[in-house]
Each structure stands twice: as C-alpha cells, then as structure tokens.
Amino acid sequence: MHASTLAKPSGILLSSHTQHVWEEAEYFLKNLPYLSIKYKELAGGDLQEELCLAVHWHDAGKEDDVWQRACQQDFALYETWCKANGKIAAINAPATYQEYTLDCFIAQKASAPHLQKAQLRHEFASLDLSKPEKLSLAVRAAIAAHHGKLHHRHLKRWKEDANGRFSDYWEGLVYEGNIIGRREKPFRKWELTLRERYKVTAVRSLLQLADTRASRKEAGKQLPTLTKFEYEFPHKQSDGCLSLRPVQQQALACAQQPVSILRAPTGSGKTDASLLWAKEQVDKGRADRLIIAMPTRFTSNALALNIGESVSDTGLYHSSAWYSRFGNELKGSDRDNAKEVHKLAQLLATPVSVCTIDHLLMCLTGTKEEHHSTFFFLANSCVVIDEADFYDSYIQANIQVLIKALRLLKVPILIMSATVPDSARQFYEITDSIQEAQREAEPIRHLQFVGEALAEVNAHPNDDLEDEEISQELSEELQRVFEQMINTGQGIVFANTVARGFSFYQFLQKSLAGQDVPLIFYHSRFTEPDKKYLEEKLILHLGKDAWKNRSAKGIAILTQIGEMSINISSPIMYSDVCPWDRLAQRIGRLNRFAESEKGVVFVGSPMSKGAIYPAPYGSYNQASNVWEATEAFTKTLTAIQKEYAGGTPKLITSGEFVIKVNELYPEPEALMSHAESNRNLLYNCMRDNWLIVPHAKTDEENGQAGLWKSRDIDAQDTVYVRPPSDTDAAEGNDQRVFPFLNYDAFRSYQLEYSISCPTYLIKKGLKTGQLTVFAYSIGQDEKDIHKLYIYSGYNDEIGLAALGSNYPILNAPPDDLANFG
C-alpha cells in the first residue's frame, strides 16, 4: 500500500481508514466477547481471525489505478474549492468537506464526479487483488457486501465494470450459494444453508458495522457506545433478597430449557419475569442480548417505553417506535446519536430489542442487505415471544419456521402468554410440558353477553359497491352500556375495527356534550407524536396513579392496539366479540387495579347490515359479498351466547379463560392451503437468499418479501397529514415537485407525519376528495419523482378514522398544496 493512497476524496489515506475500521472491529469483539464464543461453538471458526482478514482486504481495491486516479482527481477538485473559499483541505477538518459537498449539491453538481464515472467498484477490485490469498467464503462475501453490492440489483456492475474483469467473481459466488446441500432433501438443505448463513453473516455484518462507524468517526460524528445487557430486579425484601411473584419464580425455573412455554395471567408480572429469564441466559453464557417479540409494533412501542428504565439500552426496532420514544425532545448531537442507537436497534444490536414477530420473520428472508446483520444478532440473542396470535394460522405457520430456525441456531426461547393452548406444544414441537405459575389472588371480573351490537359501518372493502356513511345508530343494549359509563364517568370500549370505534366515538361524543368526562379514541391511524400523546393521556386519566389518587375519569375507545401494554383500568368495559385468547387480553384492563368490588365486561356481537361483522377475525368473500368468520371467532361467539346471556353478569377467572382457550384450540389447526404455501415460500427464501440478496420487492411496513407475507392482511400504503415545510426542502424548488434535501430529511418528515392505511381506504379517500396527490423528489435525483397522499382532515382526536367516509372534514385543506401535484 503506497503511503499517499487515498481512501476517500476528502483526503483520508487508505492506510488510516483501514486502521480505523480495525479499531472499530476490535471494539465490537472486545465489548461483545460472546460473539466470538458462539462463532467458535456454532461455526467452528475464529471470528477475530476472519474479521481481521476482511478488514485488511475490504478496501484494497482502492489501490487499483483506475479508482485511485479518479479519487485523486476528485480530491484535487476539493482542494481547488478550499483555496477559492479560504479554507484548508485537511483530513482533520471533516466539517469543511461537508460544507463542500453541500455547496456542490446546491450548485446541482457532483462532489466526486470522477469516481462516479470510473466504472469500477472498489470492492470488486478487492476480490481480484486478494485472489492469491484464497480467502474463505465468509471473508470474500464480507468484502463483496460491505457496501451492499452482493445483490442481484447490481449484476450489471459485476458484469460490466472494468470491461467484465469481475464477472467470474460474481459467477463464483452464485455457484457457492447454490451448491450448499445441492443433493440433500429440501429440509436438510434448509438446515445446512441456515448454518452456513450464520458462518458467513457474522463476518459480513461486523465488517459493515465497523466500516460504517469508522467512516462516521472520520466525518466528525459521535459514535454510540456499545453496552452489555444489564438488569436489576426492582422488587426486593428488607433483607435484600428478591421478592419474586409466582410467574417470576417459574420463569427462573424453566430458564435451563432451550425452549419453554410459560402461561400466566395478565397483570401477574410477566414483563419482569421475561427479564429475569433473560438475565439467567446471559449470566450462563447462552446469549448476550434479549429480543422481545410482540404481536404488533404498537404494543412493542409501549413495552419498550415501560421497561426502558430497568434495563440497559432498550432498542426499538421500528422507526416510528423511535419517534414514540424521543419525538422532538432531543436536539442537535443528542438527537443524532439517538438515531444511531436506533440504527443498531434495527439490527437487533442493542442489549434489549423490542420488536414484532414480523420483524424477526423478515430478517429470515434475506431480501435486504440489512437482514443479514439482523439475522446475525438474532442468532446471538435469547428470544421472548409474547402473546402470539393463536387464532391466526397464517402467522402461526410462519412462527413455526422461526422457532425451528432459532432452535437450530441454539437460541433460547421463552413463549409467554396468558392463555396459550396446550396444543401449542405439538404445533411448535416442544416436548416439555407448559410451565404454569401458581395463581395469585386476582381482581373479580364478570362477563355478560348483551346480544347484537349494531354499529353500521361500510363492511365491504370493494370500491365498486356503493359507499355508506358510518352511522351513529347503535343497538339499545349497547346504548344502555354506554349510558352506565357516562353516568360513572369511567369506561373502556374495545372495538374490533377502527370504523366501529369511530361509530362508538361519534355516539359518545354527542352524549358527553357539556360534561367533564374525557373521551379518548386510540387506534393505529394516528401519527407517532399523537400516539405518544394519547398513551400519556390514557395513563393520566385511567392509569394506576389516577385510581390510587381517586381522580380516575374518562372513557377510552380502543382497537386491538390497546389490548396489551397500556396499563389502564376501568370497572366497566364493553368489548366486541373476539376469540377467547384476545378477549382475555382485553379483560386484563378490567378492574386491573382492583378499584372496584367487581368489574363487569359487556360483550356484544358486532353487526353490520343485519349480519355478523367479524372483521378482522375473518375474510371477505368477494364472490358472495359476505364476511366469513374464522372458526375461533364463531366458536367464541357461540360459547358466550350460550353461557353468558341473560340479565346477570357471571364470574369469569383467568383459569376459566385457559380452559376456554384449550377448548377453542384442542389441537393444532390444519393449515389452510394458502397459509401452507406461504410458509413454504419462507423456507424457499431462506434457502435461496442466504448469500446473495435477490432482486425482490421488500415492504418492511407490511411484512412482505417478494410473494411471501408475514400476515394475511390487506395491502397498506402511507398517508401524510400535512405537506412538507420549507425546512425539509432543498433549494431550487421548481413549484411542481417538492425537493427534499436528502433521504434523512424525507425520513424525518415521514416519521412525524405519516400513517399506514389500507389501500382500499386510500382509493376511497381519492374518490371522495379527502386526499390530495403530492409529488416530491429526494436529493439530486430530480428525474426520480415519487408521489404521496396528503389528508387534510386529520386531528389528534380521531386521527384518520374518517378516511373513506362522508364524515365532514374539520380542517381546511392546506394552501401549501396549490403548486404541487
């Protein structure tokens, strides 16, 4: 390596950059020693040795005459700019180079034009230069992928750069990706590729992280500190011994097993139990981090916020979750550093990561470069699966694959649920019996069926049919329940859909006019800042302290996102019928703090157009124009009608819920053909994409990779509640396409103002004139025009609940839209 060889057009030397990358790689290995221990155990190799080779060779291709000449020419352009602006092109002045690149952007010219035109990817040249070393596949793959180019999307570059000099390296990698388990049966090939993926991905992911951190440091940015898993149980006796509840004792008792199922009622201390279980895994050298997988990202947001004070760095996987945590509270370098920590959380590289089942499943597909790093850190973790949706065979089939993969990777697993059925053991192929904590005294709860709960909504997602307004007309029984809530000033209402919840909201809003009773409507179609605001409002009015201080007052209308992790309570509740296991979660908010002698939940059968409306626990038959309920929904409705009808509420306990869930799922449900086909697609993704990223459409928001989906739900798209402000824009606005300065500027706007919605509602919104189409571009790529949808009727009380209906828009359309489209 020549002493003057450059690594970047900012003037940083290749020798310096390589040393910086190794320093960061060493930092990872030193602070996370378990990574090397597990690699030796599972892959049989020396992780430090492999990573050292990858770092040494990863940028060696920058010595290639073509690349180096172009870099030197671009550095000369930078020096010329510095002289013209009275500055010095020093490598220890990164702010100057950033000023230069911004100046080039404003002038609409490239800051490194010669490198852009060189037609030579340095990582390809690195493979060529290192060929005599006969590096392992793990090292070669890390070199090829450290800028995301080990991807079918970049095939043309592999074939054409340097007049086709690197084509053979691509073909060789394709061959090595296909040869694993070539003569084995499909499942055995899946096992072999999974193990090989771990071996290769370890070096691949750590090189990328080390290179990114080194480049960030060279640019004068802060680096987030790597911390280890630490947890201190908060409840202790006077003598210092742990004051454990039964579920926490049971969690420790099953910590020696590779996979366990723990059944415990809501409110029994399961969160601390899972953290104690994880501490045991880490202390015994079976993992170095904890991942808690929740049913939805809304429940994962709430849980992450709840446990954040009792454990070392708690990462939130989803970008919107980051906003829920920090919002606009952090400024400047603190906010920038928090974003970097969040990037680590997205890779599951924080000591505790709270995410969804869908996020873990997505990383198995290998359809994005980041999936490989996520997969590696998943393999070094212990995993808690909290309240899986047993009523949904589609997601259960996917979870079955996830559990098999984790067991093969020797990842400890704890499945926790208030009502997990006995049949789960057979479905997940777990031989040990379900662990059940000794039952404690629990709040007294009663249930009463109130018959048909009419709330007219447009139950059909097909735009070809005539749209109907959401009606405030409710059945008499339902009105009587709501009147009780109004009279006491307290209540929780669970609606199965946002549309039904909005119908309830309209009725209660009119009925509460002039009364000092807060009405809070909480569902998934709010912006992240408003979700955070509403969660705080719920806790303020119906949380534990409010009941303790005797100031509890308010009626909350919740959809599925309120079933878990929102720590509120009321002595009176209404719920639409849903499968027993979901109903148990909802009733966990009933009389939760024993604020009343008894709590009563009134359960109604959701109706629309004179028929049962089971959404989302069913599917719409386009041929017959009717909703078809799942078996779990139908069985639950039948049982409630039979056992809890009449004028007197009947006692129901957590133990009875377990019995009813076992009756609901007496044996593993036979997979429907589409669920089985989808599961097989996941197996195929894992076999085919373990080394090279495919050219497949990946949608993280909706849990979709190519044809595979994590859940069988309607397609989603994004709606924005206001147009971008001038602070998000670059200069040079042409009055037709809104220009974002860069991708970070767009993501900041997206995090604050976007909401995911079903596409059929977006179509309706366009038809009714509620949505405006808005054009934008990002950075210098003016020809790459995107569109987004702006909804002008949003407010922090109903969110997007009225989208697609004839409900009057409360806000005037923003004038900012006049020149865009």
Automatic annotation (TrEMBL):
Q: Which GO terms describe its biological process?
A: defense response to virus
Superkingdom, taxonomy of origin: Bacteria
Q: Which SUPFAM superfamilies match?
A: P-loop containing nucleoside triphosphate hydrolases
InterPro entries found in the cross-reference section: Cas3-like_dom (IPR054712), CRISPR-assoc_Cas3_HD (IPR006483), CRISPR-assoc_Cas3_HD_sf (IPR038257), DEAD/DEAH_box_helicase_dom (IPR011545), DEAD_box_RNA_helicase (IPR050079), Helicase_ATP-bd (IPR014001), Helicase_Cas3_CRISPR-ass_core (IPR006474), P-loop_NTPase (IPR027417)
Give start and end of each HD Cas3-type domain. Answer: 7-214
| Cellular component aspect of the GO annotation | cytosol
| GO MF annotations, alphabetized | ATP binding; endonuclease activity; hydrolase activity; metal ion binding; nucleic acid binding; RNA helicase activity
- Answer whether the UniProt record assigns the keyword DNA-binding to this protein: no
Stretches that traverse the bilayer: none
Keywords of the record, alphabetical order, are: Antiviral defense, ATP-binding, Endonuclease, Helicase, Hydrolase, Metal-binding, Nuclease, Nucleotide-binding
- Family annotation (Gene3D superfamilies): 1.10.3210.30, P-loop containing nucleotide triphosphate hydrolases
Which SMART domains does the entry mention? DEXDc (SM00487)
Q: Domain named Helicase ATP-binding: which ranges?
A: 251-438
Keyword Nucleotide-binding tagged: yes
Tell me, what's a Pfam family for it? Cas3-like_C_2
The family note in this entry says:
In the N-terminal section; belongs to the CRISPR-associated nuclease Cas3-HD family. In the central section; belongs to the CRISPR-associated helicase Cas3 family.
NCBIfam families, A to Z: cas3_core, cas3_HD
User: What's the protein called, per UniProt?
Assistant: CRISPR-associated helicase/endonuclease Cas3
What organism is recorded for this protein? Pontibacter actiniarum
